[in-house]
Amino acid sequence: MSCEQTLIQQLRARGFRLTPQREMVLSVLHDGEGLVTAEEGHSRVQRLSSAVDISTVYRTLGLLPKFDLVSSVDPGDGQRRYEFLGLHGAHLHLICQACGQVSGIDLEVAPALVEQLQAACGFQAALDQLSIPGLCPACAVAPDG
Predict the structure, then answer these.
(1) HEC string of the chain?
(2) Which of 17, 51, 52, 65 is most exposed by smallest CB count within 10 Å?
(3) Domains, in order of start, for the chain
(4) In angstroms, rounded to a whole number, what is the distance separating the alpha carbons of residues 61 and 41?
(5) Is the distance from CB of 70 to CB of 85 less than 8 angstroms?
(6) pLDDT digits (tens, 9 = 90+) for 8-20
(7) Beta pairing partners, 84
């Protein structure tokens, strides 16, 4: 069974109604590389069908993170970005405040943070939704970084 068929089966098992429009949005995210804005996703969907309007793309992108299939990131520029999680699953996002680069890293780098938050505050952190601002390696060594 293909990745997309498995995904469709999982969505249906969770009671998600998979319309052709939603399937196109998923397909665009699945086939794409990295993070995309709703507008970029809409542009890609338009290549498949001009019948899908931007509001459908926004609604679908707003719904998919609830199924843990898509990650949503706000890098601070007012343009929320989305990515298909697929096989690599949830991860942290590192957002460079100088150049805007967004990098994903495995959740395994932060178990100590989760343990400290639990011990100190009784808080159970959901790091899969965490975005950390800072400087990427290139900007950190730049003269004005």
Answers:
(1) CCHHHHHHHHHHHCCCCCCHHHHHHHHHHHHCCCCEEHHHHHHHHHHHCCCCCHHHHHHHHHHHHHHCCEEEECCCCCCCEEEECHHHCCCEEEEECCCCCEEEECHHHCHHHHHHHHHHHCCCCCHHHCEEEECCHHHHHCCCC
(2) 17
(3) 1-89 (1.10.10.10), 90-145 (3.30.1490.190)
(4) 9
(5) yes
(6) 777 788 887 788 8
(7) 70
Torsional class of 68: left (φ above 0), alpha (ψ -120 to 50), beta (otherwise): left
**C-alpha dihedral sign at 74, 62, 31, 38:** negative
pLDDT tier for residue 4 given thresholds of 50, 70 and 90: low
